[in-house]
Here is the input.
Amino acid sequence: MSESLQEFRVSNDAIDEAPELRRRMDEEGYLFFRSFQNPDDLAALRMQMLEVCRKGGWVKEGTDLADGIMNLESRCTEGNPEYTDVYHEVYKLPSFHRSGHWPVVLDMMETLFDSPVIPHPQKVTRMWFPQYTAHTTPIHQDFVHFQGAYETLTCWTPLSDCPVELGGLAILPRSHKINTVREHHFSLGAGSLAILESELDDGWVTTNYELGDTLIFTSLTVHRALPNLTPDRLRLSLDNRYSAVNQPIAEQMLTPHLSNHTEFKWDDVYADWEGDEDLKFYWHKYDLDVVPYDDRWSAWGFKEALSRARDGDEAALFYLDRTIKREGDTAHADEARQVLKEYGQVVTAASL
Ligand SMILES: O=C(O)CCC(=O)C(=O)O
Ligand SMILES: [Fe+2]
Here is the structure.
């Protein structure tokens, strides 16, 4: 662990003490448990996901699939159509959706909320390439993306051992205590929105995760991923969200992840399922308080990307080019095209 990163507080000692768990979540904004989820189930899911990645051409030929060694030529990330193509094939795996409903996680969520809980339908996985650090998830609070209620909890689970160099999640303890959403700025990293590190206290915590280790945090807790500094390994992880059934849930959480720009519906997810009926549209049985998506943060980030690109910022120029490639003829893509025309050149991934 580097000097600026300390170890998580491990909460296994309090695992059966609901009031103490809630107190720690309230105080620190996160709970970290060692060996919490079943490593065999996680490893099996990882293999299924990697098999899809292999079919998509991501895995280096002649390597052992279990190692997750990537073909660096296929590097891509959220926002790239070629990422979405493979992502949505992974999204069709029933076992991927099932993992968001595993009793060990759900029971913990019900304990923390002291209420029946709904796993948000929008499950999320991250498949982060090595040697691609400009795209690392920047410092943020989840609320800007997932919204609904400040109380919503995220469960982050690596699908392998995840030593610091593979780029696991780091948390800023007590950062949720501000009880509001901080200012976010344009970023090239996943989610495209970042809090400035200079506006934050020190005191980041993380760990060398082992398979089964599990991190839970609030939607105001400041966090970031560490860069994947390995020469060739994919970092695979799950991040799913949970709220009490009577809390507001944002409308986009009822749609498949990364379906905002690509047509991808639940019927596409379920098309080849042969069982798992209980998972299909399971949220319809709840009387949920669905609230609209508030685009103020993403709109601000995009505006900032335009203005930074006009000033020649390489990350912003690259981002606008990616937006055009993804969106084709939306209003955003038109604005992006205009700025790139004014600027006169496109930045390629290789220069970042
Ligand atoms: O895994 C990542 O890089 C991002 C995860 C994240 O931000 C989250 O779980 O909320
Ligand atoms: Fe996050």
Q: What stands out?
A: Residues 157 and 214 are 5 Å apart (CA to CA). The domain at 6-293 is CATH 2.60.120.620 (Jelly Rolls). The two ends are 26 Å apart (CA to CA).
